[in-house]
Specification:
Shape: globular
Oligomer: single chain
Helix content: 25-40%
Number of strands: 6
Distance between the termini: 66 Å
Strand content: 5-15%
Strand order of the largest sheet: 2-1-4-3
Number of domains: 2
CATH class of the largest domain: Alpha Beta
CATH architecture of the largest domain: 2-Layer Sandwich
CATH superfamily of the largest domain: Haem-degrading domain
Largest sheet: 4 strands, antiparallel
Structural class: alpha+beta
Radius of gyration: 21 Å
């Protein structure tokens, strides 16, 4: 016959500890195993399949570059890589080195944006040049080489890419990286694109973010209309001439076509649609 007993103090303490661990896992980027876990909501919105579809769609449009195959990567707000994709038939149909650059750009777009202010990697170019107010920034958050180059190279750009679920780190300060904001205006991570001229990379990234509907940017340093309360956005700014940017957030031009496409992005692909 079974008998009922009151919980012992030891069992009670174990129960409290278990609840505490569950709460900790729910409130952090760590699972009960102690390993970091990727933002599941962002994985649904910008995981492997939606990210690849958005990249293919944007890459197939005119972007003012060399019409090359591309890499793209997404990190969540904690800097964990969500997905890495490419457009070519194999991982070597686009510059192999651009895989890590795309991840660095994603990390930068996330790491240097805030809930109330978005900064693209293109916005950081001028200030990080010698004599600039942020010179040396690109050295401040080193890329995790073990994460960048670990695993089987045959898995790069697939669901099994070694970077996925890990912190890549790295800072990149030319066009192609953007922060991601969901429909509630919440900053949820960053997107990075690489494989063409940096201006084309920016144009593709902007279109991808639009396609993913993660472009509810609250404010930025670009496209502010004079004499209005327009908060602006994080578009590329082409005012960098002879080593000087009038705004302080400028980027060099790559081609007349890329410049025209980039300047038109807030109209052709408006934020917060």
């Amino acid at each position: 016959m079974l008998s009922l007993h009151l919980f012992s103090p030891k069992l009670a303490r174990l129960g409290v500890a278990a609840c505490g661990l569950a709460a900790l896992a729910a409130c952090s980027d760590n699972s009960l195993t102690g390993l970091p876990t990727v933002d599941l909501n962002l994985s649904r919105m910008a995981g492997f399949d939606p990210l690849k579809a958005a990249l293919v769609q944007a890459r197939n449009e005119a972007n003012g570059g060399f019409n090359l195959d591309m890499w793209a990567a997404v990190v969540d707000r904690n800097g964990l890589v969500v997905a890495v994709v490419f457009t070519g038939a194999t991982a070597t149909d686009q510059w192999p080195g651009s895989r890590v650059i795309a991840a660095q750009k994603a990390n930068t777009g996330n790491a240097f944006s805030l809930p109330h202010l978005a900064l693209s990697t293109a916005n950081l170019y001028a200030a990080t040049q010698p004599g600039g107010t942020l010179f040396g920034l690109q050295e401040a958050n080193p890329t995790n080489d073990a994460v960048a180059y670990g695993g089987d190279a045959a898995d790069y750009g697939t669901r099994r890419d070694y970077m996925v679920g890990k912190r890549i780190g790295g800072t990149n300060v030319f066009g192609g990286g953007l922060p991601l904001y969901d429909a509630d205006g919440k900053l949820v991570g960053g997107l990075g694109v690489s494989g063409d001229a940096s201006c084309a990379d920016h144009n593709i990234a902007w279109k991808m973010r639009y396609n993913l509907r993660l472009d509810h940017v609250p404010a930025g340093v670009a496209d502010k209309r004079p004499n209005t309360t327009d908060p602006g956005d994080d578009n590329i700014i082409y005012d960098y001439t002879n080593g000087v940017s009038a705004s302080g957030f400028g980027h060099p031009e790559c081609s007349a076509a890329a410049t025209a496409i980039g300047k038109a992005l807030p109209t052709t692909h408006p934020i917060g649609h």
